[in-house]
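Handout, section B. The chain below has 459 residues.
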Amino acid sequence: MPHENDPENLAPNFHGSYRKSHEEEELSPDRMSLEAKEDNDTVDAPIRYQPILHGSDFVTQERDVTSGEQDVAIMSEGPFEAGSNYRLGRPILIMLIAIALIVGGVLIGIYGWVESDNLVIEKTSISNIESERAPLPEEVPLVDEQDQTVVSTAEEEMPLHNETVEPVTAVATAVSPSVVRIDTLTGTGSGIILDSSGRVVTNAHVVNGAEIVEIRLADGTRAEGKVLGSDPNVDIAIVKIEGDVTFKEANFALSDTVQVGQLAVAIGSPFGLEQSVTAGIVSAVNRAVPHANIIDGSPTIVEMIQTDAPINPGNSGGALADRQGRVVGMNTSIRTDGIVSGNLGVGFAIPSDTILLIADRIVNGESLDMGFLGISGQNPTLGRAGALVVDVVQGSPAWEGGLMPGDLVVSVDGSPILGMSELAAKIRITSPGTRVEIGVIRNGEEAFFEVILGTLGSN
């Protein structure tokens, strides 16, 4: 398909060319010869080319060549008279055509203007009539000015879609109202509101044998707290808020939801600075951490969550929360180098499962005795991780259950055991009389044994 700008499609006048007049196109050579013979003046007259303006309203004056005789008669009149008539007629014709065009344009413009005004008036009238007759849609209720004001106010209060909330800020907003400061005669610590009755869970070393403590809530309200009981082996105590005060209980998450590397937010009162918020990640889970009984100094061990969220003296008993604003642990201790007593990025929190288990025992007055298996062992030097049984106490639950020296304990109730410390922590947190399943590797094959735990210290 030719392009609109191709030379062959352009009008001839675009190239400045001219077309021959009808005189030259319609007169054959023979005809020209005949006219030349009849009138020598006509032969000498030059051939005229008239420009054809593409799209122009001008009309050129042509001579009639339908009859040879008439043409000869005209030519015989001489070039002066023919030229004069041509020069006088063309301006008059052009002027008449121009006047006609001007008058026609004015008339068309006036007509179009009147018609457009009538059309606008007609459309406006029809629209007004239809709007008056059209019923209101049922899904659009009528609202008064007061309702409109409420809607506009609500729209102004809606947050922008591109606004984002900092995750630590969201966690602090959700958890801080459930964290309190606990003051005793010997020091300051923190606590977590456990339930709607006003019970607060904290570390046993925070209350340190006291019966009455002072509690400062997140809003600054001060109240008295009564110590209901404690388990110094696991380092957990329960305090009851006294008086008519308003508080918010914490939301706890199960320990199996905690993953290494997730966000960890610590909230407490380090050095007495209540409602302090620090953040980090969960560095490890099921970390067996040895510590001393606050009452008698006897060694014990507890499985904890390790975190690098800054924890300092005064954070003990405070909350360690996840991204959803749920408490996953209670900050309890830090690892130091013996020189610096502050945080070195290695802190430990008692898992939420252990908190709820011990708290339930304390509130219900159940035994706080620790479980007893009856073996001695060590970590294997080579091969698969677990607790290698070196000796079995005769008559102990392990002996009765069928465990033998050389067995490699790899699980307790389906939870993996990576070493002797993990096994000891798992058994001690379990109440005496509980039936547990011990998974071992014996002679290269996996075997399972059911053991009913005894009471630590009774054998």
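Note. The longest helix spans residues 79-133. Compare this with the example in section A.
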